[in-house]
Design goal:
Layout lengths: L1 H19 L13 H4 L12 H6 L4
Length: about 60
C-alpha cells in the first residue's frame, strides 16, 4: 500500500512540476522562411482552386 501512495503522490505533484520545466526552443520559426521553400507553379489561381488541382473537384 505505501508504494501505491507514493505513486499517487507523484502523479499529483511530480507531474505538475515536470510540466513547469518544459521550455520552448528559442530561435527563428521556420514558418517565417516559407518563401524560401515556395515553388513557382505558374498557376495563378492555385490558392483559390486548390481542391481542383489536388483532388479534381470542379472549379
Amino acid at each position: 500500500m505505501p508504494k501505491l501512495l507514493e505513486i499517487i503522490h507523484y502523479l499529483k505533484t511530480g507531474m505538475k512540476e515536470s510540466r513547469k520545466k518544459v521550455r520552448v526552443k528559442k530561435g527563428k520559426d521556420p514558418l517565417f522562411d516559407l518563401r524560401k521553400v515556395a515553388v513557382e507553379t505558374g498557376i495563378k489561381d492555385l490558392a483559390e482552386h486548390h481542391d481542383h488541382y489536388l483532388y479534381g473537384v470542379s472549379k
